[in-house]
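[Automated response] Your request has been received and processed.

Submitted sequence:
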Amino acid sequence: MLISRGEPAHHTALETPDTFRRLVDGIEDFAIYMLDGGGRVATWNPGAQRLKGYRPEEIIGRPYATFFPPEAVAAGRPARLLAIAAREGRAEDEGWRVRKDGSRFWADAIMTALRDAGGAVIGFAKVTRDMTAQRQAQQALRESEERFRLLVDAVKDYAIFMLDPDGRVMSWTPGAERIIGYRAEAIIGQHFSQFYPSDDAAQGKPAWELQQALAEGRHEDEGWRIRKDGSRFWANVVIAPVRDAHGALLGFAKVTRDLTRRRRDEESLAQANAELEKFSYSVSHDLRAPLRAISGYAELLLREQAGRLDEEGLRHLRVIRDSAAQGGELIDALLKFSRLGRQAMTRVEVDLTTVVRHVLDELQQPEEHRGVEVVVAPLPLVTGDPALLRMVFANLVGNAFKFSRGRPNRRVAIGTELREGEVVCYIRDNGVGFDMRFAEKLFGVFQRLHRADEFEGSGVGLALAQRIVQRHGGRIWADGKPNQGATFYFTIPATARRADDHAPTPTTADAKKAH
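Generated structure:
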């Protein structure tokens, strides 16, 4: 919109002042107007009225500083923009502007100086666009990226970083520095193969893992890795390709977790299990015969001396006989526990509905358990050993029955939840419960939170359940409060199908009817 100097203007039939006025008036997404040399509004188009709210008769003749927030006016921003446009021919600005109703919007504004034939500034052309929505979207994106960065940086137990397509480190987090030992400036740009033992690196394992991640969408591995100081640590590593919106490879996301302590614990546990198994067999052979003798002679004395002993003497003999029997049961439980570590597992599709029904059928036989209200939610299919899983439910549901004995309105709930590809099973009762301060003792061999004269048992059942769940790759834990019941949870891998695809699942009514 610069007025030419010296050359006559040539216009086509369309290039008339009226044509340009119609063009400007037809644009409603931009405020397009003119200012005079002093910065007062000289023209006003429908787009300006729609954006800023003023009708032409309300705004023409007023200074364009009217559109600026008070703090911008006080800082001299409107005058400074006019000066820049007059000096350089053009001024561009982004910032808050004010509508007639006082509301603010984020504007992208361009001001162009208009000159006469002698080059003197006679006014300014002003184009303003409302960028509030775009700014909010950009700000939301920046805030999201910042939150994600803060989240990643806050994770100290994982080394989370990016590799370029060739395997060179592109980013580095505090967790990566803590686990692997390098500072960001020392490792960025270096190839990630230096985290591998020399034999793995020589055999091309790093490059192979990147190829597997590309071929499969992700690659997971466990093995030894090397810290900056040369020490080894046992790592769980996940590598996944990162692509742009068009599918082009940008690099790889790499997550590494230090599992050295867990591996040592597993090795220690394996050694302890082997020693426990040897001990159990030794105890079995060395103690079974004496216990059988004690039990047999106590039973013989009860039969032959019944008329010669008073009630107190008979009671002592019965204590001897029962204690010997209990010792035998403890040995059997210990042997069962030790054998479980080497027992072969069969992994098949297991219908938990069938498993729980069989367990309930067995537990409901004694008279003392027939008053329990059992609620069974729909149960899915899982992958595991059916006999071992039945043993887990028998122990946990049996405990729920036992530790709710003598309580009013005895109730046991059995169900599952699906979380991230695994099934979380729960068994909940309203029995005596337990104090969470002693929760770590629950799954120890021969560890008991209640007196043996209150609730019978070998003290091995929960340890047995834990070992079975761990062999399935799951976890087991419990929540409880004294006199308010307890809930035991354990996880197990899920299958792709649900149990209700081929068989009905028990309902609350079915469970009640069984009693």
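Summary generated for your ticket: Confidence is low (pLDDT under 50) at residues 1-16, 499-515. The CA atoms of residues 299 and 321 lie 6 Å apart.
If you did not submit this request, please reply to this message.
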